Amino acid sequence: MREGYVSNNNKSIQHVQVQTKSAVSIMQYPAGSNATLLPAEEPMMRSATLVMPPTILRDNIRFPPPPRGLEPLSSLKKASVNHVQNSAYIPKSNLRAIEEIDSIKSKPNRKAQNQDSNWNVLNGSLKCVPDHYILERTSRFIGNTAASVISARISACLRARSIETSFNDDKAKAKCRTMDHVKFIVRLYSGRGEYNHGVIVEVQRRSGSSPTFTKDCTAILDAAEVSCSTKPMPQKPLCPVSDLNCIKDLLVKPHFSSKVPVETDATESSFGLLLENRLDANILGMDSLCNLTDVQYTAIDVATDTAKKMFSSENQEITEKILSIIRDSNGISVDEDDLSIESPIYSKLRSLALTFMVNILNLTKIDSNLINIIKSQSVFDEDFVLILVGCLRNSQENCVDASIASKGLAILLSSSFAHDTKSKVSRAGGLDVLYQANEHGSNYHLLLSKGTESCLSALSA
User: Fold this and answer.
1) What is the reported pTM?
2) pLDDT value at residue 437
3) Would you say residue 30 lies in a domain?
4) Which residue from 314, 328, 331, 313 is spatially nearest to 277, judged by alpha carbons?
5) Domain check: are 221 and 272 in the same one?
6) Domains in the chain: how many in total?
7) What does the DSSP assignment read for 236-281?
8) At residue 13, what are phi and psi to the nearest 5 degrees?
9) Low-confidence stretches of the chain (pLDDT beneath 70)
10) Phi and psi at residue 35, in whole multiples of 5°?
11) d(Cα 214, Cα 402) in Å, to the nearest integer?
């Protein structure tokens, strides 16, 4: 008999339990100096994954019908199996709407394209200011701003102010020309030394009026530092000369003369300068006529009187001279290389001639008698419409003339002889030209964009 065995059953069971417990404790906690602690036995964790049967088998499964009254609605029932989005069931009625949305998203967003910058200058392409080079006073340092951000801001400002610009990304240079024929250059330089954390913007005037350049330069430098605003600039109406504070309190001395006062003709000197054989004299005469026919700078009666005198039989030579300037580009032989933005004197005369003719067309909205005078002239025939369409066709090279031509064409399309003008424009292929000019203006020139939109809306009316 084994040691410790007791005949009594209860005592034997209790003795076996004690021996088992002591054996387990010895295995877990062995005695001795080199004893190693054994880890306690733990249950092994197992996982189970529930997997749905394949599609072929899943379609063949027959589920019992739902209880009565709990059937799904007809609009929620799946019509067919499709895998358009994440292998999910989509009703056929919704597939058509999804396809239409996808087609709209796939089309290029014109508005997003127009918001892209026309001038992309990288910091790596910038050069420091050359040694012994004196920056213009019309320059500004902009710190902690990338060159690409600054160039994008300047590009948006130039477009909003309708400034014709040719960009050069590699040289970080932009050649600009305003509607007033002011030419200037915008350059970006990388700062160095204590200014190595920013970009230097320099605006340098080449030719043109200083007051006009000052306004544009201030707007460009402000836009380079802060994002340009898309709101239109408020235009304050001009103050009459008699209300100026400098001469308001002056006493007018009576003028006594034995001679009978003679009425002076405001157009006499302008017509005389226009008939000269010098470009500078022609520009002065044409600029004066533009001011005399612009209601923002002169009285309405003076403007309409100037327009009527231009179409009189006595000034037929003046009319032919203006048409030759517009049609034949001044009628003077000039090299083709000079017929660009780099020849301001040559292009300025033609732009002033176009502006003068558009001002006369604009006066027809004020004086109805002037419409009959214009209809009797051979000036506004099909040839003049072709000239306007030709200016719009050349919009990518000369946005200034194209914007002026779009304004004049919009007036003709909305006047009393709009039907004849529409037929002339269609014969000249003007519809495609207007669409191309509008696309170019929406990217580079705001006035051209608005003028072509007016023409397109008048054609569709």
Assistant:
1) 0.65
2) 94
3) no
4) 331
5) no
6) 2
7) PPPPPGGG-TTTTTPPPPP---SSPP-PPPTTHHHHHHHTSS-HHH
8) -65, -40
9) 1-116, 227-244, 247-264, 328-344, 378-382
10) -70, 140
11) 25
